[in-house]
Amino acid sequence: MTIKELADELGVSKQAIRKHLEKLPPTLSVTKKGNTIYLNTDVSNLVRKKVTRVTSKVTGKSSNFDSNQFREDGLRNNSTSDKKTANNYDVEKILNEQLKVKDKQLAEKDKQIQTMQKLLDQQQQLSLQTNKHIEQLQLQLSNETTEDSAFSTSNPLVNDDFEKKGFLSRFFKKRP
Question: Quick check: pTM over 0.90?
Answer without folding.
Answer: no
